[in-house]
Write a structure and sequence with these properties.
Helix content is about 60%, strand content about 10%. The protein is mainly alpha-helical.
């Protein structure tokens, strides 16, 4: 008989996966995080670093990510106003997951290309 600490609660796991996908899922969130973590702080820098993203989509995703405490938006009252984005310490908690996903993606591409049909 399994000890209680080893018993997995599938319902709880599914909910946790759904929460994770909600927060970092979609086509753009991880590339945005990657861009910010690579030093792009201003809106246009982030936008230029992600091929195919629209201004509207980037704006929407940044707002959602700020709401979920993944990024911090700082407004400097210069003229013109300067806005910068940075990843939060909370965001950095899944940095290793992102790196693992990048590595998996590279390996997956090789696997698909190299495997005969």
């Amino acid at each position: 008989m399994a000890t209680p600490s080893l018993v997995r609660n599938q319902s709880e796991e599914v909910k946790a996966l759904q929460d994770t996908i909600y927060v970092i899922g979609g086509k753009w969130k991880l590339p945005i995080i990657n861009s910010i973590c690579n030093g792009n702080k201003r809106f246009r820098e982030i936008e230029r670093s992600i091929p195919g993203i629209t201004t509207r989509m980037l704006s929407r995703e940044l707002k959602e990510m700020e709401m979920n405490k993944l990024i911090k938006r700082t407004v400097y009252p210069d003229s013109p106003v300067l806005v910068e984005y940075e990843s939060t310490p909370y965001c950095k908690t899944f940095g290793n997951i992102i790196l693992a996903m990048i590595e998996w993606g590279k390996e997956h591409k090789k696997y698909i290309i190299e495997q005969p049909e």
